[in-house]
Amino acid sequence: MLAFSHRGTLRHRHSPRLTDLHLSSWYDNDDNDDRYTGRRSRTFASRAGGGERTASAERSRTRRTRGTSNNDSERGARRTEQQQQRQKNLYEKRTTVQSSGGEQSSQSLSSIDCPHFGTCPGCVVSTNIQDIDVIESAKLYFSSQSVQKHAIPHNRKDRKRYFHEEEEEFYKVIIPSSITSWRSQAKLAVAPTSTWSRSSGATIGLYARHSHDVLSIPECKSRRNDCGGYQKSSHARLFGGHRRGLLRYIQLQVELSTGKICLTLVMNAEKLKECQPHLSFLVKELKRMDDKREVWHSIWCHCNDSGGNSIFARDSSRWHPIPGSDPAVKEGLLYFSPMVFRQGNFEGFSEIAREVREAIPEGSKVCEMYAGVGLLGLSSLLYHGKLKADGKLDRGLKWLRCSDENPENERCFELAVNSMPMHITGRTPKNFDSGKTRGDKQWRGKNQQSRRNRDTSMKDLMDKMVSSSNTSDDMSTSKDQPSVTYTVANAASALYQGQALGADVLIVDPPRKGLEEPVLQQLCQPRNSKQPYVENANMLSHLPRHTINWVNDVRTLIYVSCGFDALARDCDQLLTSNAGWKIESATGYVLFPGSNHVESVVVFRR
């Protein structure tokens, strides 16, 4: 579950195993009841001039025909019933629903009864949420011969089946959460209700299609009930005219454990002092509404006076926390602040994390790129660490390396690692000032000082190289104490710094545009058997950089995709390269029910 800590940081307890649900029997195709009704009973009549049949012969033949027709009808009815049962079972397998909210009826899982459908740009379907273009394209792609010939044999669609086996699609689709009340994070636009009267208040919602007109969606079915009532908190004094209002956007993030909301106010200003006195007045009104402290967990202000449609500026110094609650840190928590990326359907994404960690072999060395706060990597670390605690020391991950270009992710990552047991992380908690953001001068000064202290001499560098060369392949020193690190760098830079050297498993969760070209090129290179096994880039300094395979030891690639077009393009290059990749599984997750979007998890082996 989620929690917040340290002045607005969200904490997420590593999700427990969610309850498995299956759709109830839905397949009642009355139109097919007469498909196998047997042969039609023939009618006999005497043809003129064709002679007369005796009555007994006619009755005898009629009895035989009637008996045959009844037998065929019974067999046809049985075939129809069996076919319907097979299709029903197959549909249930393809539409497995996993939810922590208990069992739901099939009607509630197949229909979104939203009054805003049709006018709101968020949803494209309200019924049969799996019948969307992107899922159909994914099914066709992964079932194509060009992909199936690279599939691992026991998972191939064209493998030999017995007559009683049902044909299952290679690309399985899962609805990991309820199709309503699933959104725990929302970014909404704000505009004055009227350009002529300030007393009319503000409109909060989404931009209408192909315009900047804000459409209010107070009855949105995807929004959690915890987000209700936010529209009452706006005030007309914040607006000085259309599109020139001080308050531009709001972001709502729900703490799943308590239902409280972390609110971010995006102001049309360069500095915090330019938001006054209106910001103080608004915060005072928000707190007055929440006199029992049951709504707001914490409030942040983000200054963004740039043009365009970007909600947040990339400058981290524009974030200003307004103090919130600070609950106690608990074991095994993930941390999020408004400055880092977080999935809108967090409960559903926990099922993706479950598939990822179960696809990692025991005792692996894992590298995660595009890691964000390290959700997938840390979830796997905790999962395999608990297996290790059961008695088999080789089950835990030997080490974990995560990287991402957002510098704010490192703070959340370190807070999460510090909250985990030492027998899983294998290191003592770092001294990390969780109350400071990168916008604070004190934090920046401290960071620059620590950077100067990290300057090493040539002797120190040689000592590191010697100690690295003495490290054996089984990593005996880190076998019981896995190393957990985070690097602030984009995927290509992290790769060339040697983050994936020695890794058995590589996890990538790129943005919608897919893998960066240098990363994809390295993954498409064949394995170099002459390249020595190292875990430190310094040990390959004697080799020309263009000859180094930076993913030479990776045997498992787990690709988490949010854009199918980029995924198909990258898969084509991976499978047609000489790197030896085979596709083991492909699964689609409907994280945002009603939209034309699917998250995919593809596991490659070599």
TrEMBL record:
Residues 98-110 have a biased composition (Low complexity). It comes from the Eukaryota. PROSITE patterns: SAM_MT_RNA_M5U. One of its GO terms (biological process) is methylation. InterPro entries: RNA_M5U_MTase (IPR053304), SAM-dependent_MTases_sf (IPR029063), U5_MeTrfase_fam (IPR010280). Keywords: Methyltransferase, S-adenosyl-L-methionine, Transferase. Residues 23-110, 424-460 are annotated as: Disordered. One of its GO terms (molecular function) is methyltransferase activity. Residues 72-81, 433-443 have a biased composition (Basic and acidic residues). The active site is at 562 (nucleophile). S-adenosyl-L-methionine binds at residues 343, 370, 404, 509. Belongs to the class I-like SAM-binding methyltransferase superfamily. RNA M5U methyltransferase family. This is Uncharacterized protein. It comes from Cyclotella cryptica.
